[in-house]
Amino acid sequence: MPGTVLLLAASPMGKGCLVDAASVLPVLAAVPPPVLAGTDTANVVELADPLDPQAVLTRLRAAAVAPGPLTLFVAGQLQLDRRQRLPHLALARTTPPTVRYTAFPWHWFREELRLRAPGSTTVVLDLRADPETWDWLRGNVLDCGPAAAVYGRIAPPPVRRAVAAPSYMRAVATILRSGGRPAIERLHQAALARIAGDGEVGDLVLTPFGGPVGRAVPDAPGIPAVAPGAPFALAVPDAFRVPVGPGLSPASAAPDTSDVPDTSDVPVTSGAPLSSVASVTSVASGAWALADGPAASDAHDVPRAPRPRVPGPVASVPGVASGGPDRRDSDPHVAISTAVRAGRHADADVLAARLEQTAAASYGPGSEEALHWAEVRADLAMFAGDAERSCRTWMAVADARLEAGQPVDAPAVEAAVDRAHHQWGRIHDVPRARELGPAIAQLRGRVPGRREGALDHVRQQLRQLQTQG
């Protein structure tokens, strides 16, 4: 099965630039696609200094739904938005006041990768953080989700307003160009060894969590690493220790992942085609409209809440085992995923509906536990091709969050409205779409979202629907 590779290099233009991210793309692009992917054949998509976060989202989503292994190479600059203090990957037009609208929210990586099968996704990062983000990293984790194995480094801002080079990513590309494809762990350690000679030992080293902290390379003091494993964590020098979760440090034993959402086995059934095998598509920028393309307004711009508690026994679906010693065997997310893969969409929805009802009875209809399963049902309706049901469910989730007092610019609220808007645009039954239009417009008026012109788009679509029979 061919692999998929996404090469993304982005940094702001002008004096706010901390790293010349795009300078590494020619070196990466010179590596044969199968070597980049670690597969016999590969599709490669290249994004060089993109302007629009939605253009990046479109390419990321297309890569995320492709079958086979996925490898992301991301070089760039991290900045926080001023309103919500969330990390973003700065793009070409990003400035400190416009991060929220011109940069790529980091949690979109998590959302787009969350449905991939565990073990099928590798993320290689070489990032520079501005001073605010560097401070933010002292108490927070830059997460790509439980399904992705993350390698790389995050470096502090360069001194004296210099523009740094993505030396870690360049080292990775140089090693791959030399022939052969070492295992990702060996590739990561070899790249760290190369940059250690340049004195770059104060960085945050990113590696999958799986054991106690050790040395990445014997001759590279100050750069610790951890053994390979599935969950993501940070391993950093003792002088700059970053917590990886409640009560955890990088040197502690493997973390408890029971609260990590795991819907990674649910397949996505559609997506934009990638470039042909062993070819490279270069995208410098791109326009995006709410109603067009696989991105649309289903922006997935909110991290999932922790895995909801499931009170009582888990309901089963026909043909799906719900017991066994492995936690995943009794995980309702796995049972739902299995049903979807088998095409039993109704069975999957029945199970999710039971879990939603049980959670609502135990914790309240507006609880995160109940809303989680409502969101799952909205996604299940999308997978089943029922855009109207998906739209109505996302609208109900948005209304519930607003009624609970969540602000209109909360990521979870914006995401629910964005997805409702997107699914409304995919309703082919004109009378049904026309019926839902006013409610979508009213909701959009309350929650405009990040994309300018969203409400105008709804009104335009409504006018067009009025003229259709």
Structure description:
The protein has 469 residues and is of the alpha/beta class. The chain folds into two domains: 238 residues, Rossmann fold, CATH 3.40.50; 171 residues, Alpha Horseshoe (Serine Threonine Protein Phosphatase 5, Tetratricopeptide repeat). Helices cover 36% and strands 14% of the residues. The N and C termini lie far apart (45 Å). About 26% of the residues have low confidence.
Give a short synopsis of this structure.
By secondary structure, this protein is of the alpha/beta class. It has helices at 25-29, 33-37, 53-64, 99-102, 107-113, 131-136, 167-177, 184-196, 332-341, 345-363, 368-383, 387-403, 411-424, 430-446, 454-466; strands at residues 3-10, 42-48, 70-80, 87-89, 104-105, 121-129, 148-155, 204-208, 214-215, 224-225, 232-235, 280-283.
Shape: globular
Low-confidence stretches: 209-329
Mean pLDDT: 73
Structural class: alpha/beta
Q: How would you characterize the largest beta sheet?
A: 10 strands, mixed
In total, how many domains does the architecture comprise?
A: 2
CATH class of the largest domain: Alpha Beta
Helix content: 25-40%
Secondary-structure map:
Layout: E1 3-10, H1 25-29, H2 33-37, E2 42-48, H3 53-64, E3 70-80, E4 87-89, H4 99-102, E5 104-105, H5 107-113, E6 121-129, H6 131-136, E7 148-155, H7 167-177, H8 184-196, E8 204-208, E9 214-215, E10 224-225, E11 232-235, E12 280-283, H9 332-341, H10 345-363, H11 368-383, H12 387-403, H13 411-424, H14 430-446, H15 454-466
Parallel strand pairs: 1-2, 1-3, 2-12, 3-6, 6-7
Antiparallel strand pairs: 3-4, 4-5, 7-8, 8-11, 9-10
